[in-house]
């Protein structure tokens, strides 16, 4: 089928011979799409200080630009998080890449705050469409290994978020500092469209019947089966807390880290901002097992964020780095377990919709707290706000650890599909 036939949810009149990719190639392609889109969405992290100067932005303006991405992402998850179930995974990923391409170009050439907001919003919509599609595609490709499908999903997602600031900092050394990263990324997205177009796509898992195409794409009221409800809310809560920390790392943390290490080198600041997210991505490769991984991971997250604030007070770069790594590892392990549990309990036909629902709540964590922190920083200064944020994160981590403790002691392994 052609991409247009998939988008119209109609069978192609003439069969198109495409690239009959192997399972491994399809796994890589699904992961690379969400990874690349998230890299682009986070290229700006080490550039915000330059954009503040060039466009005359306040800290609240920076958080508004960042939050517009997250809010658009959440809206997109609600509106079309389920689309890939009906139009097919490949068509959804192609749409996501095209929207991400437009968003990067708008943001990279922005001359004012509204253009920054518009560019970030388009990037958020692109990631929203790709999130459910890529997670569901990985699950489709590994039907008997849902744990590894979840690991690949989180590895690609957290890896892309972590790599974005590092790559953005390095590319900002090119001439035209704030535009060059997005131009390079746009070229990569165009190249990514080639294998997606050539791919011999698999049929949609829930194709629309005649006359119901538009009805199938209408927004759905979030709904979770009783079997998966507890796992859904625990995963969403852990995700909200996790992404509150990530949102801080990707928005206000670069300025805070610059004060701690007393340097203003963009590649270094981008690297520091990515340490927590990189450690989270790396933790997906660890085969750590145990019933108490969730509460222990949450406690490690809370204590580590407190130590990040202590590192700022003590101006200790090494404590900052070690605490950031520990925070990412604790978050990554805890979130992987709860994410895998809900993914294992959801029926395949609703996988994209339910996982998108988890991410709706998760991504709100990277928007709402950051907006509040940006407003508070104008009143009390960044160091005070970071300390208050660390205390709240530690308290929330301890609370969730207590909630997860009895569940961790009694939870059994997810039931394999088909039983």
Task: Please characterize this protein's 3D structure.
It is a single chain. This protein is mostly helical. It is 76% helix and 0% strand. It has 18 helices and no strands. It has helices at 3-8, 23-41, 48-55, 59-80, 83-87, 89-108, 113-141, 146-171, 180-198, 213-217, 226-250, 253-261, 266-283, 293-314, 317-345, 351-364, 368-380, 382-410. The longest helix has 29 residues, at 113-141.
Number of helical regions: 18
Major beta sheet, specifics?
none
SS-based class: mainly alpha
Beta-strand residue percentage: under 5%
Rounded to the nearest angstrom, the radius of gyration is: 21 Å
Which secondary structure elements does this structure contain, and how are they paired or packed?
Layout: H1 3-8, H2 23-41, H3 48-55, H4 59-80, H5 83-87, H6 89-108, H7 113-141, H8 146-171, H9 180-198, H10 213-217, H11 226-250, H12 253-261, H13 266-283, H14 293-314, H15 317-345, H16 351-364, H17 368-380, H18 382-410
Helix pairs in contact: 2-6, 2-7, 2-8, 2-9, 4-7, 4-16, 4-17, 6-7, 6-9, 7-8, 7-16, 8-13, 8-15, 11-15, 11-16, 11-18, 12-13, 12-14, 13-15, 14-15, 14-18, 17-18
Keywords for this structure?
419 residues; mainly alpha; globular
Give a quick summary of the entry:
The chain is an all-alpha fold and 419 residues long.
